[in-house]
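ENTRY TYPE: paired fold submission
RECORD: A
CONTENT: sequence, then structure tokens
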Amino acid sequence: MVEHIFRGSKRYWLWLGFLAAVIAAGFAAYIYQFQNGLTVTNMGRDVSWGLYIGQFTFFVGVAASAVMVVLPYYLHNAKEFGKVTIFGEFLAISAVIMCLLFIIVDLGRPDRLFNVIIMATPHSMMFWDMVVLSGYLLINLLVGWNVLEAEYNSVSPATWVKRLAYLSIPWAVSIHTVTAFLISGLPGRHYWLTAIMAARFLASAFASGPSLLILLMLFLKKFTSFKVEDKVLNKLSVIITYALTISLFFIGLEFFTAFYSQVPTHMHTLQYLFVGLEGHTALVPFMAVFTVLALVAWVLLLNPKTRKNQKYLGMACAFVFVAMMIEKGLALIIGGFIPNTFERITEYLPSLIELMVTVGVWAIGALVLTILYKMAVAVKERAGETEH
């Protein structure tokens, strides 16, 4: 199977070359950060988690969303999901790798990662986050590789592989739940101190992850011989519609709780994010984009005619993905620090170095995903699951 990675069109090699160049630029930025310390970022005493942790949180959700294709196929015997399950598992692998890289770059020094192991304690949410994320990566590697190898050899996957696939379903829920506990368990941050944080995380994950999967399936449909069935896209789009609706409803609940109860610390963060507070408006344009994209996507997905039209479906999925990345990958984490515990406002926007490192991590994720998808499409071509 691996040999297919080294065979491809000129466009394939140009794409890999582009990703390699972006990774090199991101790595150079990381080396600069490593040599000069986290002072080259815009993080500080008041906003100690920035873009890196925001992106980590967002891509944990993307990884967890693989359950949206694994669950119907393995638990409900929905055969139509069989062709795309491997693509969902490979998306989870690349997303978890990105999550681990975001943690490493946020630590400043990679050796600090070993502190989680050396000083492991069951009371540490960081320890449990490491356990569930590394376990989820291992499960998806084992399941994805063995399922693809079985398809390559035209045999059924081993029984233990199916059992691991069943295990991956609750495990996927656990990775995002533990990440939510990591944030909501900090009592000094009132914006995060909500009992529905884990539910919010899962709802937004099941909207953004399947949206990205649909975009990838549409891309493969256009540029490769692999053709996903329309009924799979229709079912995934219905899942996204429900998940987006629930996610927006949960955000509405946060507004009601904060403003009906008039809790100042909870209200101030929402005011800062959406309309600005005491003249500070750095994140307001981002939240305006989030609001517009989320509502337009919601309308497109609610209407069956636009939801079943692949042109509008692709547009809605792109809007959902970008909107959720802004809300969870930027505003949710940064908003928790503003105002600080002394009700003072220190604004944060990522520095150029942070942006370059982040884009470099995205490129590594895209490179891993490209290689895995190249192999999967080649195996499916060999198995006759594609159109010529």
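RECORD: B
CONTENT: sequence, then structure tokens
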Amino acid sequence: MTELLIALAGSSGVLLATLLLAWTASASYVVATGRAGGDALLHAPRESARLLRQRRRTTLSADRLLWRGAGWSLLLVAALLVALVPWDGSALLPGSLGVVWANTLDIVVWALVWLLGWGANSVVGLVGGYRFLALALAYELPLMFALVAPALAAGSLDLAVVAGAQGTLWYAVWMPVAFAAYLLGVLGFAVLGPPSAPAGRETGSGVLTELSGPDLLVVNAGRYALLGAGAAVAVPLFLGGGAGPWLPGAVWVLVKALLLTAALAWVAGRLPVLRVHRLMEPLWTVWLPLVVVQDLVVAVVVVMGR
């Protein structure tokens, strides 16, 4: 009984943290687009009320189960990512393969975003879905190699061990390329900022074209939640986890996650959306080799330190 109550309390905490991160991302994104701070704080509830009153759009022969299931699953993936984060030395979903699970969950997003375009039975949506897959492959490989760097330095795939191995020098300081590649990957799987062309004007809103009302609300909430969840996972990977003076470790994890979420959302709102081909070439020819070199540097440092 006690274990069940602890699990319920932990699940509730993860859900609240996911929603708080999503709301922070939404407000920061709105601020970046030029709206006032007070207006930005109320943007999420106002937009939610507006979309809940809006009628759902339907398309001919749409696969509604997969279409709408994919939208809700974005929120589920975000919550699972947050559940992997060790808030005070332990996570709701602890495991020796936390880094691998985080990578697996972001790859699940590939299928979910593609299903948003495919399930609507819409040409524009399907084009957006396939463009997302093409772009995802280009940013995912650098992201995967970026995840290798902190795991290699800590000698573990456990997020709690990775966080604890950083001491006073965060991995973000001496692994800047891996950190930047990871953050670009977060923007990519949240479909926000420069890598958001598959849902942008280039394809007539792409995978979002046929979404409206509650369906669009769920998907947008999922995108902001994924941005916040990706930022939360970055805390044990690159920002020292719960290390910090005076405050408990869990508070430091939350503060760092919120600040990184706000910064990422602000950047996403300020930078223009880049066309897919303009991103793919530098990602394959420049970004990927740089991250591999970063991994080699980390490997040399680890070997020299033994």
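NOTES ON RECORD B: Residues 175 and 294 are 7 Å apart (CA to CA). Residues 1-305 form one domain.
STATUS: closed
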